[in-house]
Amino acid sequence: MISKHSHEQSDRGEGVEVVQNEPFEDPNHGNGQFTEKRVYLNSKLPSWARAVVPKIFYVTEKAWNYYPYTITEYTCSFLPKFSIHIETKYEDNKGINNSIFDNEAKDTEREVCFIDIACDEIPERYYKESEDPKHFKSEKTGRGQLREGWRDNHQPIMCSYKLVTVKFEVWGLQTRVEQFVHKVVRDILLIGHRQAFAWVDEWYDMTMDEVREFERATQEATNKKIGVFPPAISISSISLLPSSIRSAPSSAPSTPLSTDPPEFLSVPRDRPRKKSAPETLTLPDPEKKATLNLPGMHSSDKPCRPKSE
């Protein structure tokens, strides 16, 4: 589902480039799959964000999938104080486990948000009737056409619990950016899980080998679609490095970040320095009366007196 969604969202130099997709072993969580991607999304940023980021802008996504537990983190070398960290746990219930992340977020203020794939509204530009769970009916499983209250009576059912942490430690922009990112993440989760449900007939009968081959072919096609032509992606069945070297931390993995600006932002050393003011400053004749008019201001010959309190 993720591979297909990434392919659909990629075009004209923007989208999701797959850098790595390989098996991974963790001493605490066991065998899993590690993926690294670059998400090019300049045109999808709001206008106030596009004004401060370069056109060649991408976010690095790293994900460790130890189903039913996964870790996903997003970082950006251009914005070293920005990060998104998502921990996911899956349980076969309708979202009634209120303490599922108590160990990971103990004594942390949290806001709980329920996402209903059938009844929650999505941005109009992303709506497709074929991906609407209220209208979709699976031919292979018989699932579908979810109605109001489906969470209480539908079987089988599974809940995807996600602990989303957003950090943007820049004074003056922190609250605005963090609130914006939380809204974007919620919309993406809603759309992605609607698609996973509506595309069930495409993946329901797949073996793991068929899933890996589908990922490989789709990811190569996606990289070409956004203009990236690397060697063929290798999705191997064995680890490339010893687990002691490649092991991910049990929680909150961190990506080394560089605080140095990228090359395209560096000022050439041989570039002449621009003068911001003339070397000689000429002052007006004090005997000549000059009036400066600014919008919303009025000149007057009367002296100003401070108002009495």
From TrEMBL:
Residues 1-32, 247-309 are annotated as: Disordered. This is Cytoplasmic phosphatidylinositol transfer protein 1. Keywords: Lipid transport, Lipid-binding, Transport. Catalyzes the transfer of phosphatidylinositol (PI) and phosphatidic acid (PA) between membranes. Binds PA derived from the phospholipase D signaling pathway and among the cellular PA species, preferably binds to the C16:0/16:1 and C16:1/18:1 PA species. The gene is PITPNC1. One of its GO terms (cellular component) is cytoplasm. InterPro entries: PI_transfer, PI_transfer_N, START-like_dom_sf. The keyword Transport applies. Residues 1-220 form the Phosphatidylinositol transfer protein N-terminal domain. It catalyses: a 1,2-diacyl-sn-glycero-3-phospho-(1D-myo-inositol)(in) = a 1,2-diacyl-sn-glycero-3-phospho-(1D-myo-inositol)(out); a 1,2-diacyl-sn-glycero-3-phosphate(in) = a 1,2-diacyl-sn-glycero-3-phosphate(out). The keyword Transport applies. Belongs to the PtdIns transfer protein family. PI transfer class IIB subfamily. Gene3D superfamilies: 3.30.530.20. CDD domains: SRPBCC_PITPNC1_like.
